[in-house]
Amino acid sequence: MKIGIVGGGVSGSYLASLLEEKHDVVIYERQEFEKFYTVCAWGTSLHELRRLSSKIGLDFDEYVLFTGKRMIVQLPNRELEIPLKGLCTFDKRRFVMDMHKGKEIVYGRTIDKAPSDRYNIVVDATGFSRALLPRIKKDYFIPTLEYKVRFSSPPFDDFMVRPLKGLCGYLWFFPLENGYAHVGAGDYYKRHVDVLREFMREHGGEIVKKIGRPVRIAPPHLCQPIMEGNVIGVGESIGVVYPALGEGIIPGMQCAELLAQHIERENLQQYPSGVIKKFDVYAKVFEFIRKKIKGEFSWLRDFNLVLSAFFHMKLAEDRYGMEIRLRDWLNVVRS
Q1: Which residues, other chains included, contact 40 with Cβ-Cβ below 8 Å and sequence gap of 6+?
Q2: pLDDT, tens digit, 9 for 90 and up, residues 167-187
Q3: Among 3, 69, 80, 129, which is least packed by CB within 10 angstroms?
């Protein structure tokens, strides 16, 4: 088939890599080749990325910048130390650019209308912008700002996160290499800029790059249609982002993997329901986050949502790259 993929980020590039041997695939990327840069904190799970990368012939270990041993979680009254199981940062730009190699890619091209007449399938991999699919009726997103910072003496030697009041977002410090780190914050109520500035005033460091973007936390069942005609969404464009963390690298690649399977099995009509089923726990986690943000959370009524999030992550520790303990999770929720 002729397949046009709009968006050359992680999800779109991974999908193209899975399909290129059997199909005629073209990627349209709005950024120029020389200026191409991937957003997000570059944090992920070593174990799951090894699995996903091996399917397209890449050795993920070649891209790893830092592998953590512990994550410091700064709460108002205490500090937690979470043992890590493969949480790492990686050279996301080089990883994506290596997926681009050998493919037909049109750089510097913004597509805001699906070229449906030229392709059997057009994939909307445009992330938050969701440029080709209809607008979401009720979207939910977290504004974020991230700095790449060079420290002469980094304030932390490992991962650090600081949940913000009401679990409306968090501040993060993700080590890279050679004294560099990503320092960022996201907040539903848009206080993230002040939080980030305060951190930089306290710890110093030279800001070498700034990136601001919203992260969609509305889950797939709120991001319908997932498919309209021959236009099909993948990744963040259809809400495949883990709402509790705002993490979309692994979910986006897993979603691309699912779409590739449906294309090969020639049962694309089942793909939307397959996405909702595969990421069904995201709906429960989102509802928990939404209630916390809006001040509607009740321990008595909503404890099942707390447990849903805990058990989901507990049963997938390697996928999340950390040890999940109930007491830690409850402490975060209480904060």
Answers
A1: 92, 146, 248, 249
A2: 899 999 999 999 999 999 999
A3: 69
Burial code (b: 16+ CB inside 10 Å, e: under 16) for 7-22 equals: bbbbbbbbbbbbbbee
Which contiguous run of DSSP H or E holds residue 174? Answer: strand 169-175
Distance, in Å, from the CA atom of 48 to the CA atom of 247, rounded to the nearest integer, reads 14
First to last CA, the chain: 51
**For residue 188, what are the β-bridge partners?**
none
The single residue listed with the structure tokens 């790059």 is 209
Retrieve residue 10's tokens: 């992680």
Residue 78: is it exposed, middle or buried by C-beta count within 10 angstroms (0-12/13-18/19+)? exposed
State the residue for tokens 């709906």: 283
Give 293's contacts (C-beta < 8 A, 6+ positions apart): 166, 167, 168, 188
d(CA 81, CA 84): 9
Q: How far apart, in whole angstroms, are the C-alpha atoms of residue 220 and residue 238?
A: 5
**Measured distance CA(239)–CA(221) in Å, rounded:** 8
**Tokens in use for 75?**
């709460």
Alpha-carbon span 239 to 29, nearest angstrom: 20
Phi and psi (nearest 5°) for 45?
Answer: -100, 125
Residue entry with tokens 């999770």: 329
Lookup: tokens for 162: 């600081």
Residue whose tokens read 């249609």: 225
Q: Spell out the residues 6+ positions from residue 322 whose beta carbon is closer than 8 angstroms to its own.
A: 71, 82, 83, 84, 85, 87
Tell me which fold the domain 2-334 belongs to. Answer: FAD/NAD(P)-binding domain (3.50.50)
Report CA 101 to chain centroid distance, whole Å.
23
The model's pTM: 0.96
- 226-272 tens-digit pLDDT: 999 999 999 999 999 999 999 999 999 999 999 999 999 999 999 99
